[in-house]
User: What shape does this take?
Amino acid sequence: MLRIGYGFDSHEFKPGIPLIIGGVRLQHTHGLGGHSDGDLLLHAITDALLGAVAAPDIGALFPPSDPKWKGADSSVFLAEALRRVHEAGYRICNLDTTLVMAAPKIGPHAQAIRDRVAELMGVEPSAVGIKAKTPEGLGVDNAAQCHAVVLLIK
Ligand SMILES: [Zn+2]
Assistant: This one.
């Protein structure tokens, strides 16, 4: 049996904080504020995994209003989503993601991000798609967005 899951996330750029994407820290003037460490890639993947097994979403499991999650390492959220996926009897076939952000360029870091996400998820890097686009015409250069889909098999 197959299940598909989809996740979306966005965060606003803030000056002077670390930029962490897919568990990898990138050099940039701005980081992503808001929930936890602002790792929108891991948040979108987490929501895709939770959605695939019809679990509550990341905001319900880890409320941004709870001070416990301020600055939290987002791999904690991913680990809980994976636990629920495995508990439901599924494993990951593959996942694909698209980051939408004006800067920095993701291309030079895509392999490092792919390797780290694969490690966190316990899959081969060849099962992890990391793509990036600029938000052309959208007028949202102050924010980063991420879409993620996962395919699970029982
Ligand atoms: Zn988020």
User: Anything to note?
Assistant: Residues 40-52 form the longest helix (13 residues). The two ends are 5 Å apart (CA to CA).
